[in-house]
Amino acid sequence: MNFEPAPADPPPPPGPSLPQRIFGPRFKLDPTLGGGLRGWIPAQYPTVDVRTTTQFTWSIEMSATIASLIKIHRGYYESNGLAGPRHQGASVVADVGDKYGKAAWLLGMVGIPITKAWEPVIRYETRAFQTRATPNRPVRIVPYDTSPDTDLATIPETTNRLSMISGFETLVLAVRYDQSSDTSATIDSNRGEVPFPPFYVGVGAIQYSKPYQVTVGDSVLDSVLFDSTFRGAGLALGAELPGRPNWFIFNAAAQVGLGEVRLLKDLTLNELLPSDGKQSGLRPPQWLIGYVQGDVSFGYLWAVLPTKPTVLLSAVANGGGATFFYFKTRSEQGEKASTPPLNWDFLWGIRGYVTIPL
Q1: Is 217 helix (H, G, I), strand (E, B) or coil?
Q2: Which of 147, 269, 296, 313 could lock onto 261 through a cystine, CB 3.0 to 4.6 A?
Q3: In angstroms, rounded to a whole number, what is the distance separating the alpha carbons of residues 204 and 214?
Q4: Per residue in 295-352, pLDDT tens?
Q5: Does residue 25 have a cis bond before it (omega within 30 degrees)?
């Protein structure tokens, strides 16, 4: 008598791919609502305590794909009020942000696909926080429109608190590449090969303003406080994990290049850098200012309701900022290279989002 094992039950049919949408693949619309904490930690100085207040904020976001004509990778606005704070210069007065709120964040990234894999993109981001600079001993607060010829000793000293809106902006013009959409790319999944995550390469610019005391490494001009603007331009890079439900969220962006620190309307810190007197049209200055800027986000995306449309929940932590530094373009034989810092800033956030793909 032969006993044959009962045939195994067939595997259940696979469920629909997530997220389920209403409009289909040629028109994708992802509205998102969220909330969380935002903060900006600026560099500190010996005679001035600089603070930006950590804020609970709400946010609204939208991404979209319209046929093959345009991709809105991200359109994002965040604030702790109905309107974001506005930069009105530095002022030794009451809080300048009370009318408009004390924090705001705006980000947009738009691409126009030229093929399935290659896509020129524009990425713009701006952040604003109410900032307070409190002297712990008398300092001279120099207005932005002060003439460079002014004797700083004639500016009266004060211990009054300085209030202003600090802004932080980045702009990127780049080309984005998605290997998973490249029909000419050879990827053998049977050998465990996986495509590179989507990334972009291009040029970028940065600008932000804040209360500043001139710093060279560990030395600080601690008797004077400026309302300064930091600017730079250089190479921009970025990468991200392809977004999908029940998977990790990761994206990173960075810039590196040459910078400028504007202390007054008609005076930059670059003009005050030491020179050996040998500069010519083909010979760079002895000292220059460089910068590095970066931003990283990490989180997870859950499909909490696999309905049509799917309800997605995400939690994301974000951190980044910028540092400006001096560097010497020419060194004598045996001279040790140095890059004394002149400023740093760190921005962070912890967020939660609900997305309903349409």
Answers
A1: coil
A2: 269
A3: 25
A4: 999 999 999 988 888 899 999 999 999 999 998 877 666 667 678 889 999 999 999 9
A5: no
